[in-house]
Amino acid sequence: MNTITNLLTFEQFLNFDDGNEINEYELVDGRLVLMPEPSELHEEILEFLSFMFELSYRRLKLKYSVRKRNALFLDEAKARRPDIAIIERPKTFFEDRPSRGITTKPFMIVEIASSNWSTDLVDKQEEYQAIGVPEYWIVDDRGQIPAKYCWRGKGKKVIVLTLGNGEYQRCEYLPGETIPCQTFPNLTLTVDQVLAADAEDIL
To answer: What is the 8-class DSSP label of residue 120?
Structure first.
């Protein structure tokens, strides 16, 4: 296991390995922050949304790519690992030495709320807004975000933030409602489908 005593740069962060394949970290002000272990439903929702987004861009013949928990460059001392990031397919994709991590601005990011939901709702919202990510979803699959931070009460929901005049405009969607998707306007998903991670009645 590597012991880190100095602050890390983004490039050093990409090369960091603590010898444990399960651990995943983010980089905050040069320091490693261990990410919570995701639940089984968290992973099912991640795979479901990744599949639906990939299906959408392939149908539209867009040169996009779905990245799952890849390191996203924010600055030289900060990197996040979004659950899902929709990016332009890198031009270096087929080169012998493709670049690592995400260094371009994603079209869309999805975070599935874990025990560190406040990071998704506050810190990451500010960070993704600062780099100009046009669309950001927060899936609260366990309804754990406290009511005082929710416009429509505590409970399972999908929070959608879209960029307008440099700031995020926020909407909350509850079970029984359809979630509009700015990145893929033809994609029709309900909150129930996302929470169930079920594409059976969609395909």
So the answer is: I
Closest CA to 110 of 144, 159, 38: 159
Domains of the chain: 39-68+82-196 (3.90.1570.10)
**Distance of alpha carbon 121 from alpha carbon 138, whole angstroms:** 8
Name the H helices within 146-202: 191-196
Q: Give the angle 32-149-179 at the CA atoms, nearest 5°.
A: 90
Strand blocks (E) in the chain: 25-28, 31-34, 64-67, 72-75, 78-80, 84-88, 108-112, 135-140, 157-164, 167-173, 178-179, 189-190
First to last CA, the chain: 45
152 Cβ neighbours under 8 A, 6+ residues apart = 172, 174
Would you write out the chain's pLDDT as a tens digit for each of its 203 residues?
444 558 999 999 999 988 888 899 999 999 999 999 999 999 999 999 999 999 999 999 999 999 999 999 999 999 999 999 999 998 765 555 556 899 999 999 999 998 889 999 999 999 999 999 999 999 999 999 999 999 999 999 999 999 999 999 999 999 999 999 999 999 999 999 999 997 666 65
Cα–Cα distances in Å, from 80 out to 23, 38, 72, 176? 14, 16, 5, 31
